[in-house]
């Protein structure tokens, strides 16, 4: 017990040390932010493309493209800096972590410069100011007139946004329902899980114009000067980059490019999306999601099984220090959520090694699976009667031959059902990698929802596709399970 406590404390100290190191990039003593970007020739822009008209994806002639007002602003800034714009997409609540760990150079994604955010990042000048609206179902038009009409009702808002905070502070007597995705909020509204959705004026107007079942009400929220409008988030201390970006934003304001060009362009793309919102039109999105899901699962299964076998053999071995380390690894992985592990691999380890999102997600899923597979294999080996081992050794078989020809074949028949369940679960668990921008099936589902303004149908299609994948795999696993239990006789 004492050794276990010491090992636990060591693990905690290691991760606390890593946490301190992770914060170092944001605290650089010298400011070479602009020079660094110009040297590498790229400006990496963090973005969550499910928030029209700021940023969203379009399906034009079967090709995906991220468009919107913020994208046009990003292009202008990159052009002025003389570099290439690279858009890195991920969930909105992962953007600040990506900025603080150096995954992106700036966040241009309809973000408000709140005082809480300013504690950790710098902001450019405000590039767009608009009020806050409340989306409601058209059938409820006579029930609500402004934010004071929602007493004792439920209001939805994206977690971590200005609208979420304003709804909590300025709408007494209501319950705020926070969600991470704009499409989920609209679906909740249309299915009457919430009575209204607080959104930025431009985004609310876009949804209302493109969905005949919704209308936007003026929220009349009170907004302080520190919170008003949208700005570009930058790493702390990046003064030179901030000044260069502000110069571009001043040009955009002087020429009124947002109203004259950027919003007009975004509106034309939104019309492209709503011309054909059939799910057949978006088949390539779902196909790409299935491909990524299966690819991640396959690689994770291979790595997970190999790692699981290694960990199981170590835990069954006699080298105490290796057994302790393997046990600590298994217990730690099983005791922490997969989502946290994915974010740690991508953002934490990514500070030292720039790991692409797809590879980071696959590694995290594989390492997680390895811990569970090791317990399945260890339990299967322990289920073989000791008399079998003793009989094999008495016949002159070595320890390795006993394991290979006697123990493992019997253990395999016992562990196969549990191992099969782990493989099936793995396909479903890969859905979590969407939080770091991996275009798996869930990520593509979100994009289709945002593009088509339809909430339920894309979910139904994703459910069917997941069922086809898992059911097909379960049939294959059942076939080999029967062969193991009833081997063919010649």
TrEMBL record:
<feature type="transmembrane region" description="Helical">
    <location>
        <begin position="344"/>
        <end position="367"/>
    </location>
</feature>
<keyword id="KW-1133">Transmembrane helix</keyword>
<dbReference type="InterPro" id="IPR010065">
    <property type="entry name" value="AA_ABC_transptr_permease_3TM"/>
</dbReference>
<keyword id="KW-1003">Cell membrane</keyword>
<dbReference type="Pfam" id="PF00497">
    <property type="entry name" value="SBP_bac_3"/>
</dbReference>
<dbReference type="Pfam" id="PF00528">
    <property type="entry name" value="BPD_transp_1"/>
</dbReference>
<keyword id="KW-0472">Membrane</keyword>
<dbReference type="GO" id="GO:0043190">
    <property type="term" value="C:ATP-binding cassette (ABC) transporter complex"/>
</dbReference>
<dbReference type="GO" id="GO:0022857">
    <property type="term" value="F:transmembrane transporter activity"/>
</dbReference>
<protein>
    <submittedName>
        <fullName>ABC transporter permease</fullName>
    </submittedName>
</protein>
<dbReference type="InterPro" id="IPR000515">
    <property type="entry name" value="MetI-like"/>
</dbReference>
<feature type="transmembrane region" description="Helical">
    <location>
        <begin position="290"/>
        <end position="314"/>
    </location>
</feature>
<dbReference type="InterPro" id="IPR043429">
    <property type="entry name" value="ArtM/GltK/GlnP/TcyL/YhdX-like"/>
</dbReference>
<feature type="transmembrane region" description="Helical">
    <location>
        <begin position="455"/>
        <end position="477"/>
    </location>
</feature>
<keyword id="KW-0029">Amino-acid transport</keyword>
<keyword id="KW-0813">Transport</keyword>
<dbReference type="InterPro" id="IPR001638">
    <property type="entry name" value="Solute-binding_3/MltF_N"/>
</dbReference>
<dbReference type="GO" id="GO:0006865">
    <property type="term" value="P:amino acid transport"/>
</dbReference>
<keyword id="KW-0812">Transmembrane</keyword>
<dbReference type="InterPro" id="IPR035906">
    <property type="entry name" value="MetI-like_sf"/>
</dbReference>
<comment type="similarity">
    <text>Belongs to the binding-protein-dependent transport system permease family. HisMQ subfamily.</text>
</comment>
């Amino acid at each position: 017990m004492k050794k276990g406590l010491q090992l636990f404390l060591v693990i905690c100290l290691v991760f606390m040390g890593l946490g301190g190191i992770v914060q170092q990039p944001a605290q650089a003593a010298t400011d070479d932010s602009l020079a660094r970007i110009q040297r590498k020739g790229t400006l990496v822009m963090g973005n969550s493309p499910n928030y029209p008209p700021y940023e969203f994806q379009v399906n034009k002639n079967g090709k995906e493209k991220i468009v919107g007002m913020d994208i046009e602003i990003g292009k202008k800034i990159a052009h002025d800096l003389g570099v290439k714009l690279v858009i890195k997409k991920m969930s909105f609540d992962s953007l600040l972590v990506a900025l603080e760990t150096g995954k992106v150079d700036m966040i241009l994604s309809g973000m408000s410069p709140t005082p809480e955010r300013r504690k950790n990042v710098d902001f450019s000048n405000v590039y767009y100011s608009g009020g806050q609206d409340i989306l409601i179902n058209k059938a409820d038009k006579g029930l609500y007139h402004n934010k004071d009409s929602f007493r004792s009702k439920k209001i939805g808002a994206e977690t971590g946004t200005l609208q979420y905070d304003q709804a909590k502070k300025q709408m007494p007597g209501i319950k705020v329902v926070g969600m991470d995705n704009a499409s989920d909020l609209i679906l909740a509204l249309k299915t009457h899980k919430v009575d209204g959705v607080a959104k930025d004026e431009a985004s609310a107007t876009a949804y209302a114009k493109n969905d005949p079942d919704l209308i936007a009400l003026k929220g009349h929220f009170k907004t302080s000067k520190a919170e008003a409008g949208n700005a570009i988030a930058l790493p702390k201390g990046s003064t030179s980059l901030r000044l260069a970006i502000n110069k571009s934003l001043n040009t955009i304001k002087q020429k009124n490019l947002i109203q004259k060009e950027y919003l007009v362009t975004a509106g034309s793309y939104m019309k492209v999306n709503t011309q054909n919102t059939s799910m057949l039109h978006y088949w390539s999105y779902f196909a790409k999601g299935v491909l990524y899901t299966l690819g991640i699962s396959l690689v994770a299964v291979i790595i997970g099984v190999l790692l699981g076998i290694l960990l199981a053999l170590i835990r069954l071995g006699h080298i105490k220090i290796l057994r302790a380390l393997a046990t600590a690894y298994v217990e730690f992985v099983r005791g922490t959520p997969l989502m946290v592990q994915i974010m740690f691999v991508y953002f934490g380890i990514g500070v030292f090694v720039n790991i692409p999102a797809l590879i980071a997600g696959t590694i995290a899923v594989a390492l997680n699976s390895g811990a569970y597979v090791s317990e399945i294999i260890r339990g299967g080996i322990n289920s073989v009667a000791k008399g079998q081992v003793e009989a094999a050794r008495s016949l002159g078989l070595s320890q390795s031959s006993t394991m290979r020809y006697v123990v493992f074949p019997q253990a395999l028949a016992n562990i196969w059902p549990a191992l099969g369940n782990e493989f099936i679960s793995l396909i479903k668990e890969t859905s979590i990698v969407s939080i770091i921008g991996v275009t798996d099936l869930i990520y593509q589902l979100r994009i289709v929802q945002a593009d088509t303004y339809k909430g339920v149908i894309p979910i139904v299609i994703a459910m069917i596709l997941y069922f086809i994948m898992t059911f097909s795999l379960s049939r294959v696993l059942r076939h080999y399970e029967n062969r193991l239990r009833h081997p063919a006789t010649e």
